[in-house]
Amino acid sequence: MNNSNYFFKCSICEFRTCPSSDKLNCPDCHSPFDVNYISLEDAKIKLNSIKIPLPINSASIVSLGEGNTPTIKLDNLSDKLEIKLSTKLEYFNPTGSFKDRGSSIMISCLKKAGIKEIAEDSSGNAGASISAYSSKAQIRSHIFAPSSAPTAKINQIKVYGANTYLVEGPRDQATIEAITFAENHGVTYASHNLSPYFIEGTKIFGYEIFRDFYDSENFPEHIILPVGNGSLFLGVLKSFHELFLDNKIHKIPKIHAVQTESIQPIYSTIFKTDWNPVNQTKTIAGGIAVATPPRLNQIVKELQQNDGTCEIVSEKEIIEWQLALANQEGLYIEPTSAAAFAGISKLIESKVIQKGASVLIPSTGIGLKDLSPI
Amino acid sequence: MNNSNYFFKCSICEFRTCPSSDKLNCPDCHSPFDVNYISLEDAKIKLNSIKIPLPINSASIVSLGEGNTPTIKLDNLSDKLEIKLSTKLEYFNPTGSFKDRGSSIMISCLKKAGIKEIAEDSSGNAGASISAYSSKAQIRSHIFAPSSAPTAKINQIKVYGANTYLVEGPRDQATIEAITFAENHGVTYASHNLSPYFIEGTKIFGYEIFRDFYDSENFPEHIILPVGNGSLFLGVLKSFHELFLDNKIHKIPKIHAVQTESIQPIYSTIFKTDWNPVNQTKTIAGGIAVATPPRLNQIVKELQQNDGTCEIVSEKEIIEWQLALANQEGLYIEPTSAAAFAGISKLIESKVIQKGASVLIPSTGIGLKDLSPI
Question: pTM of the entire structure?
Answer without folding.
Answer: 0.83
